[in-house]
Amino acid sequence: MGARLIVAHLDLDAFFAAxxxxxxxELRTKPLIVGGDPHGRGVVATANYQARTFGIHSxxxxxxxxxxxxxxxxxxxxxxVYREYSQHVWETVRGVVPTVERTGLDEGYLDVxxxxxxxxxxxxxxxxxxxxxxxxxxLTCALGVSTSKVVAKIAxxxxxxxxxxxxxxxxxxxxxAPFAVRRLPGVGPKAEQRLVAAGVETVGALxxxxxxxxxxxxxxxxxxxxxxxxxxIDPRPLELSTERISISVENTFERDLTDRAQLHAxxxxxxxxxxxxxxxxxxxxxxxxxxVRYTDFSIRSRSTSLRVGIDDGEQIGDLACGxxxxxxxxRPGALRLVGVGVSGLASHQQLALV
DNA sequence: TCTGGGGTCCTTTATCGG
DNA sequence: TCTGCCGATAAAGGACCC
Length: 354
Prior knowledge:
12 strands, DNA polymerase, domain 1, alpha+beta
């Protein structure tokens, strides 16, 4: 076993909302929105299926969600709780399919080829995963099974919630063709706009584009990658290593901020959090960056690199404040958000070995 | 009072040393 | 010495994803 490339994509149904319903069963019969303050600047993280019938969806502003459904229940995300449920889910999944790439708390890819000979067997394995997850956690999930990540992912999205879609080898392009281009992972708002403006509305149409037009519409390497995916061609292997390559903290203010001292204080607080994170995981960072978002939503960032890695909150805070001053010198204005990030990470262990 | 927070990857541009 | 080219690396921005 293991020669075939059979990959499944698993997606937990309305995960944050589903966990809240398990914790508080009265919520099950109500439209439920997990997200920010509906009277502030928050957005919807997850809405249960009841709430979705009002047109509410992820990334919508909570204020808008409240307008669409004034009797909805709003709860703040509790990530620590979701992490526990998620761990339980993935332990359960690994009991059926040992090799797994987690791409988020609520989704990931499974190397089904390791435990199934063909797509008939793969379907049985996928059903076993759904049954096991449900038995262990009372959570439901949708799965898609095919020969590559991109097809498995679109397949898992095909029958939600709780569905299973198997796309056997040889049928990938036919399966993908009717979907709107936006459904293809990698096609965001910008690419969609360009493609649709040129009359390319479906994945099938994207798959059939000639080299010339493709280059014109999606320059760079993006075009070829996306057209390949539209044809069901996706060479990405399962990524088993889970090393973080950057750490950041950012915060949107309730009201836009201009006062420099206040901004510096915010930044230093975030620098402390970043430093704590570094210290707890035994790592240092060589690059510090500051990000600001202006009232018009445009973003500017400034960064600086050191010869040696640091993990001290004061030091990171000093650098971050200097970078903020530089950004504001280049482009003054009130800010709705500031953030601090570090990258160029190295672990102490690694340093000790050198 | 539209529009979070935490990431990754890619591209372009600037800078610096042969 | 001046200029151009090349490659490496940093910095900045942008698109995208969950």
